[in-house]
Amino acid sequence: MSNIKILIADDQTLMRDGLKTILELEENFTVVGAVKNGSEVLEFCKQNVPDLILMDIRMPEMDGVKCTKMLKALYPQIIILILTTFNDGDYIIEALNYGASGYILKDIEGDELIKAINDAYKGSMMLPSTVAKKLVQSLSSNPKFKPNEKKVINELSERETEIAKMLSMGFNNKQIASSLFISEGTVKNYISNIYSKLGTSDRTSAAIMIKKML
């Protein structure tokens, strides 16, 4: 099993220490650092780039959303899991749009946290049910995310439907290509067509809408 280098970013010392204690019990986890705001995350990554960051959304100096935007522009390979007590739809959509791989609520059980990190490292999108529900509500209230569901389903080809289902389950392009024995370029073309029919250019928004329709 691959060793996953993890950076913890949270402004609460108790939270940082608690997470570090839990994660260091896992043989394939190495906590490479613990910082208290987004600015410190960026500074840390100049010297030691982690595989995955547990990122608190509300921190002084630089919050998790802004940090995610800047970090993914500099280090697109880093996996970012947003850690929060605030299941706010606007924050969720914004952070995911900037490239975060999912949200984890701070009251998550230790074993669920470990599973979430391992799954995110493998390419899955992590959204607890309470957050997913909030996302659906947020997207449903936004007029630009209201396609005619029956019309969209009828417009999808058999292959597009197959790929749309996998997209909604959190599969990345490489995983979809491998499963269907097609190239990643072909997958990208299909997903582009799916986005066009859904009326969005965002993977997370598309995944949420597909889950509602299929």
UniProtKB/TrEMBL annotation:
Residues 155-197 form the UBA domain. One of its GO terms (molecular function) is DNA binding. SMART domains: HTH_LUXR, REC. Residues 149-214 form the HTH luxR-type domain. CDD domains: LuxR_C_like, REC_NarL-like. It comes from the Bacteria. The keyword Protein biosynthesis does not apply. The modification 4-aspartylphosphate is found at residue 56. Residues 5-121 form the Response regulatory domain. InterPro entries: CheY-like_superfamily (IPR011006), NreC/VraR/RcsB-like_REC (IPR058245), Sig_transdc_resp-reg_C-effctor (IPR016032), Sig_transdc_resp-reg_receiver (IPR001789), Tscrpt_reg_LuxR_C (IPR000792), UBA (IPR015940), WalR-like (IPR039420). Keywords: DNA-binding, Phosphoprotein, Transcription, Transcription regulation. It holds the Pfam family Response_reg. One of its GO terms (biological process) is phosphorelay signal transduction system. The keyword Iron-sulfur does not apply. May play the central regulatory role in sporulation. It may be an element of the effector pathway responsible for the activation of sporulation genes in response to nutritional stress. Spo0A may act in concert with spo0H (a sigma factor) to control the expression of some genes that are critical to the sporulation process. This is Stage 0 sporulation protein A homolog. The lineage of its organism: Bacteria, Bacillati, Bacillota, Clostridia, Eubacteriales.
